[in-house]
């Protein structure tokens, strides 16, 4: 473990950079989906397939990675995955058809789950437990930076030049981050394969129960989110009349607010516990989904509702990841299975959206209120799972476990 503040900062910065490129690669397909519909002949209701094939491939990769991830140095394992991610986006920029784009997204998905598992494992291995919430808040701010800088920039390129250039920009970003990872490994800052990876001791029944609860939490949380997020851009444009030219600005504003929210959520999780902060975020998210998507929304209310949704999603994710980082077990294996649960949950959410939504003649989507209600029902399941994980088998509440975070991040 790196004990120095400088080492901690460099670890968090590297993890945040990898998180940024993975989330940029994934998040871009959501708002840019409508731009692909006409040139690649994709129905609006079928845009979720681009997410489904990505998440399905990521789930498969997570299962495979769980067997081998703990054998490798975290940083060294990131490098070939980042280069393959860059190649997948080059393929996406050159895709001549919907089928070719699906293949490119599947290749990107195969890199996503192992990369996310390596990011989470790196933080869990090198950052002290008492400061992990803050560290994860910083790392997951990469999501917000992707929304603030990356996605709007790529959308601007898609609108002003060509949508293919947006995928090329993601490929270039992945190459830059791979250079940073390679430099970190060459500098000798890498972490050796964790000792626990070779520990033959099997998990205890209590540890297995915690791990199963964590997998269930991740699955339900991401199913609730991905039932909605692949269709939000199309919904606000075609159903609510929000201008396409303002979509980059919408993501930029919401991303800025989400960035601040996650930087606040991290220390809050360390001080007050994941269940408390996560519950507040889940309740805010459920209320916003109900008011924004289950009932007709005035044009002026779109931006505030969109902002609250992203901020609440970010806060919930920080709380969930902080809980997972404290669960004992072989770190790489557990995090890879967590990524698999995340991707399977996302696939389930996407399939639920495709089952309930349909295209109208004017291009708008029918069925969004019913889908919003299903998402709220899934969020209701998240709340008890948060508390079941917060209370350890010995009855100790993690929310009361520690003093404030130690060590600057």
In short:
The chain contains 14 helices and two strands, in the order αααααααααααααββα.
Beta-strand residue percentage: under 5%
Question: SS-based structural class?
Answer: mainly alpha
Average pLDDT for all residues: 78
Q: How many domains comprise the coordinates?
A: 1
Distance between the amino and carboxyl termini: 14 Å
What fold name goes in the CATH topology slot? Growth Hormone, Chain: A
Number of helices: 14
Biggest sheet strand order reads 1-2
**Percent in helix:** over 70%
Series of secondary-structure elements, N-terminal to C-terminal = HHHHHHHHHHHHHEEH
**General shape:** globular
The largest sheet, given as strand count, sense and whether it forms a barrel, is: 2 strands, antiparallel
Describe this entry's structure for a reader:
The chain has 409 residues and is mainly α. The chain has one domain: MFS general substrate transporter like domains (Growth Hormone, Chain: A, Up-down Bundle), CATH 1.20.1250. It is built from 14 helices and 2 strands; from the N terminus they run αααααααααααααββα. It has a two-stranded antiparallel sheet with strand order 1-2. α3 runs antiparallel to α7 and α6 packs antiparallel against α10. It starts with a helix and ends in a 19-residue tail after the last helix. The relative contact order is 0.17.
Based on the model shown, name its key terms.
409 residues, mainly alpha, Growth Hormone, Chain: A, two-stranded antiparallel sheet, 2 strands, disordered C terminus
What secondary-structure arrangement, pairings included, does this model have?
Blueprint: H1 5-37, H2 48-68, H3 74-93, H4 98-126, H5 132-139, H6 141-160, H7 163-186, H8 205-226, H9 229-239, H10 247-272, H11 274-292, H12 302-325, H13 331-356, E1 358-359, E2 365-366, H14 368-390
Antiparallel strand pairs: 1-2
Helix pairs in contact: 1-4, 1-5, 1-6, 1-7, 1-9, 2-4, 2-13, 3-4, 3-7, 4-13, 5-10, 5-12, 6-7, 6-10, 8-12, 8-13, 8-14, 10-11, 10-12, 11-12, 11-14, 13-14
